[in-house]
Amino acid sequence: MKLTLNWLKEFVDIGVSAEELADLYDLSGTAIEAVRYLGKGFERVVVGEVLTVSKHPDADRLQVCEVDLGGERVAIICGAPNIAAGQKVPVARPGAVLPNGMEIREAKIRGVTSVGMICSEKELGLSDEATGIMVLAAESVPGDPVGPILGVDDWFFELEITPNRPDCMGLIGMARETAALLGGEIRRPEVVLKEHSETIDGLATVVIEAPDLCPRYSARFVDQIKIGPAPYWMRRRLEAVGIRSINNIVDITNYVLVETGQPLHAFDFDLLKDGRIVVRRAKAQEALETIDHVSRELITDNLVIADSARAVALAGVMGGLHSEINEQTTRVLIESANFHAPNIRKTSRALGLISESSLRFERGVDIDGTVYAAERAAQLMSELAGGRIWSGLIDSYPELRQPRQIELRPKRVQAILGIEPNAPAFSVILNRLEMKTQVGPGVDDQIAVTVPTFRVDIEREIDLIEEIARFHGLNKIKPRLLQSTSPKRGLSPQQKFVRSLRELLVAAGLTEAINYSFISRRDLDRLELPEEHVWSQAPEIANPLSEDQALMRTTLLSSLLQTVSHNYNRDQKDLAIFEIGNVFRPDGAVPKQSMRVAGAITGRVRPSGWFESAGSEADFYDLKGLFELICGQLSLDDFHIETASHPALSPGQAAELISGTKALAFFGALHPKIQENYGLRQPVFVFEADVVGLFAQAKTEPTFSEIPKFPAVVLDLAMIVDEKVSWGSLEHLVRQTGAPLLKQVHLFDLYRGEGVPAGKKSLAFNLTYQAGERTLTDNEVGHIQKRIIQRAERELGAQLRD
Amino acid sequence: MSWAEELQSIKKAAIKAAASAGSTAELDEIKVKYLGRKGALTALLKDVGSLPAAERPKAGQSANAVKQEIETALSGQAATLGSTELEERLAADSVDVTLPGKRPLVGTKHVLNQITDEILDIFLELGYRVAEGPEIEVDWYNFEALNMPPEHPARSMQDTLYVGQDNQAVLRTHTSPVQVRVMEQESPPVYIVAPGRVFRRDVVDPTHSPMFHQIEGFAVDKGVNFGHLIGTLETFIHQMFGKDRKVRLRPHFFPYTEPSAEVDVSCIVCGGEGCRVCSHTGWLEILGCGMIDPNVFSNVKYDPEEHTGFAFGMGVERIAMLKYGINDIRLFFENDLRFLGQYR
C-alpha cells in the first residue's frame, strides 16, 4: 500500500512526525518498505511570474523571459512552446538540484545569461512526460516556494500490508489503524449527493447469476460527463502512489479506490447493450479484449460482467476495452461490487493479470463498503467532471451478511500470550479497532465481541488474541525459559553418522561444497549417459525459471564437476571436494529422494615444497585410500571392492564398494570424454556413495577384543605373477590359506623390471601370524607358508621370488 | 707366567684398552677380545679346571672379580663416549626451524553447514531433537495443513516450483512441513529443530536464490506461551550473536502461526548505532515466529485447548551473511575454494 501522509491526514489527525509514525507502524505489524520526503529537490524551486517574453537574438527556438521571483527580476531562457507573459511558473533557481538529479546553474546560452530554469512537470519529476513548461494557478504568489503549491511538501509511505489485512489497503483502513495506535477518531469524507430527478430504475438493471462469486453489486449512474484531465491535486496524489493518470473519470475511480480500498469500475453506459449488467461465469472459450489491448480466451471458472450481448469486464480484475471510458463518453455506470476472493485470485493467477483491483479483491474487501464508494465516486464526478447524478442506487445484495460475534476468554489470552487476564483492558483495545464489546466486571469474564465486516481476517478467538498482542505490545511480554520435557532428544544415530562422515572427509583434506539441487538437460548430456541409465531419468520441474534449473539432480557428480570446472578455470587446479546431499528419481506423484555423498580429487593431493618439488598427483589409489579411510573410521562392516563398469568412469579404473549384493559406492577415474566435456586437462578421480547404505553397514558401537598376549611372527614373501593376476586374488588366496592364524597381509612392494620377466610383476608382502593362547613355533608357521606358496603356484601360476 | 699372573695381566691390558677406547665400536671390540666367547678371560676361565682342586674355588672367584672390574671399566668408558657421541649426533641432526613445515592438507566444512550445526547445537542443548523431511513435498504438508488452503492469498508470498506426475508435488518452499510430519506421527511434548534446503521460484541476484537453507524450530507442550517463545529466542540469539544483543519483535502475519512476529536483533555490525548493514535502523531482521495456529493443530489432531506451542524459522544464508559480512548469496553455491577456505 502506497500513500502520502497529507492524504492520510484527511482521514485522521496525526500528531507525530513521519519517522515516529513509521516506527509505530513497524512495531504494530505494518512493515515499512519505504518512507521518503517528496519535497526533496524542490528546495530552490519558487513561483515566478513571466513578465515579458522576447525572442532570443541568436537562436530561433529560444525565448528570453523576464521573470519576477518576488521582488527580484531575472532573465531566464526558455525553449517551451507554451510560454507566455502573465503565466505563473515554477522556477528552479541556480543551486537547485531537482528530484531527477539535474543541477541548475547560471549559464550563458548563445551569449545571453539565463539565471535559472523554468520547469516542466517532467523536469520536476511530477509526471513521465510533458509537452511544455508547467503553468501554476494564477493566484500563486511570485517568490513563494512551490513545494506546498505542488503538493510535494508531503511524505511518501510504502507499507507492506500482510495478506490477512485487506482492510488496510485503503486510506480509511490505514486511518483506523493509525487512530488505534495514536488514540483518536477517523473522519470519512461526508458524501452528500445532489441527485437529479431522473432515476436509475428502469434505465439499468443488474442481474447476479453467480451469487456465490458475487455476493453484492452496487451501481450509480451519472450523465452529462465532460471527459478531460483530472485536476492537478488529484493527478498529483495518484502519481505519488504510483497510479498513472488517465482522465477525470478513471482517475476518480482510482482515487476512491485508494481512499476506501473498494475497487470501482466505470462503464461507458452507451456501450452497454440494453443497459443491462449480468454477473455470470464466462462461457467456455468466451472472448474478451481487456483495456490493456490483450484478447483473452476465458474459461467457465472466470467471473465476468456482461451486458445482454457479451462479456464487458473481467470481474474484479480488469475492464473490457469495448466499454472503456473514452473521450466521447458522457454517461457512466459506476460499478462498486464485492467478489469472492479465491475466485479472483485464481483468475488473476491463471491469466497472469494483477491489478490494483485484483490485489484487493483476492484478499477480501468489506462487503459493507460498496455503497459508500459508489456514492463518493458519483459525488466527485459531479464536482470535477460536470456530471449529473441520477437518483437512486442499484444495490443487488442477495444474502445479507451479519457482523460476526466471537467470544473472547481472557484466560485463553493468558494461555497464548503469557500475560495477566484483564478483560477491561482487552476490551479497550478492541473498541479502539471499532469492535463492539460486552464484558462483565471481572478480569476473567468472557468478552462478547462484534466484529465489523471490514475485518475479514477476524473469524476466531485466536484472531482477537492477535489484536490484543499487537496493541498490548509483543515486546512487553515477559520472556521465560523453557527446557524440553520430551524424553526424545539429541541427534539420531544416522544424523551422527552424517556429521562424522562430513568431519572425516574434511579432516582427510576435502573441502565441502553445496550445489543447487537442480541441473539442466545439458548437464546430463555432458555425462555421456546412455538414455536408459537411471541418471537420465531426472524428475522435471514444471515451471522452471531457466533451462539451467529444469531438472532435479539424479547424481551429485554433475554439480560437483561444475564446481571442479569453476575452480579449475580460475587457476585452482589442485582440488579435493565433496558434497553430501539428496538426489531424486521419479516415483509417481512425488519423486523420491536419497542421500548421497560424492567427491572429486584432481591435481596435487599432497603439497609440493622444498622437501618434494613435484608434489604428488592424484591417482586411483588416493581415492581408494580415501575409501579405506572412510570404511575404517566409520567402522563399516562386511564389504569388498570389485572392478566395475560405470558410464562416468574410465573402463580400466573403475571400482565398486559392494556390501552383500548391493553396490553402495562407485569410484575411479572420470571418463576422459566427460573430463573433456568439462574442459579439464588433467585426470579427475570421483566417487559417489549411498549415505544411508553406508550407515546401515556401520557399526555404531565398537566391540572389545582382547589385546594379544603372545608375540606375533612376521614373515615376508615375494611372488612373481602374471600381470593379469590381481593383487586382490592373490591376497584372497593367501588369507584363505593362512586362516585362522594369519592375521594381517601387508603389500609392501610392487615391482616390474630387472629380474622379473616381461609381462609379469613381483608382489612382496608381510604376513603376520598370531595365536591368542600360545607362542607360535617356526615349524607351525613354516608349514602354513609352504601351503600358501603351493596353492599360489598351482592356482595362480605364481612363482616364489628369491 | 702363572695362571694368577696371567689373570692380572689380562685385567691390566683390558682396563687400559677400555680407558683409551675412542668410540663405542672400539669398546665393543675390546669387550669381545676379553670377555667374548673366544676372548682372553673366557679362555683363562676354561683353564681353571687344570689347577689343583684346592685352588679352583679361589681362582674362579678372582676371575669373576676381574670380569666385573673389566665390565665396570668398559661401561664407564661407554658412558663417557656415549654422551660425547650423542652430542655430536644431535649437533649434526639440527634443523632450520624457519623452513616451512610439511602441513597435512585439511578441507573445510561448508560455511552454511558450520552455521547450521552451530544453531542446531544450541537447541540440542535445550533438549530439542533434529528432524528432517523430504525436499519434495505434497501440497498438504507444504501448504494445506499449514493453514494455506488452495487459493489462500498467502500462497503468493512464496513462488513455488512444481514437480512430479501431473505436477502434484512441490519443491518445499519452507521447512515448516516438518512440523506437520512430526506432529502427525507423535503426541506432545515435541521439541524439534528441522534444518534443510528450501526452494522458491526466484531469479538469482545478490540477495535471492532459488535454493536456500532454513532452520525451523517448534515446541508443543502443556502451558507453552508467547513468553516462552521470546525466552527461547533470546537464549538462542545471545548464544549465537553475543549476550549484549538486544531482541525486538514486530507483529507480522504467517498463515501457520498466530500471533506471529518478525524478530530483530540489534545490529551485529554497529551494535545498534545505525550503519549501512542495518540500513541505519540499528536492527537486523533474523527470524520469523509465532504461536502455532489452532487450525494447524486441528489438522494434526492435536487439541489446541490442551496443548499450545510455538514455531520459528530462520534463513541460514542470511545469518551467515550477517555474521561474516558476506554481500552476495551466490557465493555460497559457486563453491569457489578461495571463498570456502575463508571459513575454517
Structure description:
The complex is a heterodimer of chains A (about 800) and B (about 350). With about 800 residues, chain A is an alpha+beta fold. Helices cover about 25% and strands about 25% of the residues of chain A. Chain A has 20 helices and 41 strands. Chain A has a seven-stranded mixed sheet, with helices on both faces. In chain A, strands 11, 13, 14, 21, 22 and 23 form a six-stranded mixed sheet that branches. In chain A, helix 5 packs across helix 6 (about 250-260), helix 6 packs antiparallel against helix 9 and helix 19 runs antiparallel to helix 20. The model of chain A has no long low-confidence stretch (mean pLDDT about 90). With about 350 residues, chain B is an alpha+beta fold. Helices cover about 40% and strands about 20% of the residues of chain B. Chain B is built from twelve helices and ten strands. Chain B has helices at about 5-20, 25-35, 40-45, 55-90, 110-125, 140, 175-185, 225-240, 295-300, 315-325, 330-335, 335-340, and strands at about 130, 135-140, 160-165, 170, 190-200, 210-220, 245-255, 255-265, 285-290, 310-315. In chain B, helix 1 (about 5-20) runs antiparallel to helix 2 (about 25-35), helix 1 runs antiparallel to helix 3 and helix 5 (about 110-125) packs across helix 10. Chain B is elongated and about 125 Å long.
